Amino acid sequence: MISLYKNGAWLINGTELIEDGPEAAAWICSLTGEKAPDKEEAMKNTIAYSILTEHSISGNMDDLKIKFDKLTSHDITFVGIIQTARASGLEKFPIPYVLTNCHNSLCAVGGTINEDDHMFGLTCAKRYGGIYVPPHQAVIHQFAREMLAEGGKMILGSDSHTRYGALGTMAVGEGGPELVKQLLGRTYDIKRPEVVGVYLTGKPIPGVGPQDVALAIIGAVFANGYVKNKVMEFVGPGVENLSADFRIGVDVMTTETTCLSSIWETDSIIKDFYDIHGRSEGYKELQPGAVTYYDGLVYVDLNLIRPMIAMPFHPSNTYTIDELNENLMDILDDVEKKAQISLDGKIPYTLKDKVKDGKLYVEQGIIAGCAGGGFENICDAADILKGASIGSDAFTLSVYPASTPIYMELAKNGVLADLIQTGAVVKTAFCGPCFGAGDTPANNALSIRHSTRNFPNREGSKIQEGQISSVALMDARSIAATAANKGFLTPATEYAGEYRKPQYYFDSTIYANRVFDSKGVADESVEVQFGPNIKDWPQMPALTQNLLLKVVSEIHDPVTTTDELIPSGETSSFRSNPLRLAEFALSRKDPAYVGKAKEVQEAEKAREEGKCPGEVVLEVGKALEQVKVVYPDVNNENTGIGSTIFAVKPGDGSAREQAASCQKVLGGWANIANEYATKRYRSNLMNWGMLPFLIPDGELPFTNGDYLFIPGIKRIIEANGREVKAYVVGDRLKEFTLNLGDMTADERQILLDGCLINYYRAGR
């Protein structure tokens, strides 16, 4: 159902494909009657290239400097972003900036702190000229689809699932500092990304939904990095067989492939979407050129997609539901082995106790958020459930429409009543089930969810307290089929009834009544409202000539998620308080990390105060004595002291900058990795003054607890060097090599200044 081209691919007239090779030129000539263009010219015919061209001000398409049309953030990111921008001289939002409140909607953790953040957002929208969406009105991405997306435009969001490609909008999810740059009139600087075509053919069979297609693609491309940091461009005759909601549901999940962004060809179906939402002017027809070259190609036969399930603990751990049911015990055995890698063997884990009469039983179903909460998903699920009951045993079903307009239409057309009658609970727009702040299952329970991720503890359990529950990702239709069978895992293809497919009527009245829209007018008379938990960023020192770093955590998982670097769930409420949030860093992966990092940080604080760091932390003093045997010029002024961690492949998942900033707040100076899972995590490191070191796979000359000395790191960065000589400090200095990878001139200067805030304070 999914195949990957080993080479690039040529697309002719939007329908004909050939893999790049010796015969490609002759084939193109036979179809077009003209000589085949060279690859560089044909690359320019991608939809992505045309949009990037219109938004880059560099004049050099190999090195892009992008200015976005709009920005969007939610309530666990906008406080830190605006605080950083305020500290850097913000006077007015220069482009539309939407502040949604869909993550910390439940004001139940830490007293007033969540609602304090909301009021901070409202007053900032008034003062700086933004848009404020109150809690429970819409999840961030649904509001963007309904009210912000436009064909050929670009949106930058501080959430990793910022994806509106199905509507013709190239959208990128990044850490907060990248939004700060846009707020201050700067640019998003990247090398031109490769563009991978996703060629769709055929039509999904009844019972197959967008999550099934998305999971099939993720399973095919995640582990091999086929689309990592690239743009996925959806084309082909199968596109016209998908509704707008279906395309949106596939598109939002492209984040889990680790691609940079996505874009789709557009047609009359997308035009209808804009018409329905009262924004006909937002539609733009987008098609690849007559002869287009893609750097790779994912071939998707929609006819062959079957209901899918992503087993714990990653969206790429995919099987068809039929395959799982036919090989249940073998697959569960494999899932348990993989789980013990993610869980470090800290807690017993099994799903085999869920098997009854040869079928897998689950305790919870959830249809929610930017992936599952769409109108079509919920209506199809209601059709499958109509007249059924979810039962009175352990199984529960919660449905979260993605916006109040969707909720209103479900109420008007009777779908809401159909759902409630089954025993399902229909709630307001909220992202909580997606990151562990709502509907946490019981210990040892298995939840099936049409949401975005199923990382360990992502559902809200806490391994450090002996809790473990699990999430498997599925499409809303198969969740409904399972619910109709009271928790026994069932693919939606077993449903033989009709899908009513009611027409959607968008009513913007609730937004007109509740959403604050400044229309871009800033009001300087408005005072920003602060709560006691909203704190400024602490002072961060500039990079010194040399560094002495202690390795305070060593993670050998194949991939380390941002959830493991800084947990989600209730900790999200503390993201307005950098010091308090930092106490949770790596708490579910390495509980000793915070204490170790803070101990080394005491030595750095002493150095900054002109005291002897070795007298504060004795082992630092011993390490410095050993270093001075070879480097006698090392002193307080030229050598910073801090911590670092090693992880094989850190940064998969969320765009949250706090995965990096919490380490910095605790005195971190660097990460060391074999590779970085996403571009956005590496960018977050650099924006917070953290060196993104690389070391070859299989080479690890140090271990947890070792001190590393890195001489002349400042000079190396100033000279745009990549290779870095470093030493393990023991009875003698043992040399090894680190690599910094490519950096822009601005990224190098940010590292030299110590962080993005310092960079702007210096007037750069």
Can you offer a commentary on this structure?
With 764 residues, the chain is α/β, with parallel strands linked by helices. It has four domains: 2-64 and 194-304, Aconitase, Domain 2 (3-Layer(aba) Sandwich), CATH 3.40.1060; 65-189, Aconitase, domain 3 (2-Layer Sandwich), CATH 3.30.499; 309-509, Aconitase, domain 3, CATH 3.30.499.10; 546-761, Aconitase, domain 4. The chain contains 29 helices and 34 strands. α5 (113-128) links the parallel β6 and β7 (131-133).
Reported CATH architecture of the largest domain? Alpha-Beta Barrel
Number of strands: 34
Enumerate how many helices there are, as a single number. 29
How much β-strand is present in the residues?
Answer: 15-25%
Helix content: 25-40%
Looking at the structure, the CATH topology of the largest domain is Aconitase, domain 4
Low-confidence stretches: none
The backbone outline, from C-alpha atoms, is globular
Distance between the termini: 51 Å
Specify Rg, calculated over alpha carbons. 26 Å
Q: What is the strand arrangement across the widest sheet? A: 31-30-28-26-32-33-34
Structural class: alpha/beta
CATH class of the largest domain: Alpha Beta
The fourth-level CATH homologous superfamily of the largest domain is Aconitase, domain 4
